[in-house]
Design brief:
Elements (H helix, E strand, L loop, with lengths): L3 H22 L14 E3 L7 E5 L6 E5 L3
Antiparallel strand pairs: 1-2, 2-3
Length: about 70
């Protein structure tokens, strides 16, 4: 089996999300690809060690694991 296509897609998605996190952490404004709403970065969630990137509509909802 050739998983190279799947691996490339997963890597591209990871890189896109990493770049999104970097830009939000720098205070830049990013918009959701689907609803065009503003994305927010919340690192002060109720769960320790977790953060979230989301839009108001909920179509973008990325859970972050924050570790040492």
């Amino acid at each position: 089996m050739d998983f190279s296509g799947l691996n490339k897609k997963a890597n591209d998605s990871f890189q896109q999300q990493r770049n999104m996190l970097k830009k939000l952490a720098q205070g830049k404004t990013l918009h959701c690809e689907k609803c065009k709403g503003v994305l927010t970065l919340d690192l002060a969630t109720s769960e320790p060690g977790k953060g979230v990137i989301k839009c108001k509509q909920g179509c973008t909802d990325i859970i972050l694991e924050i570790g040492a």
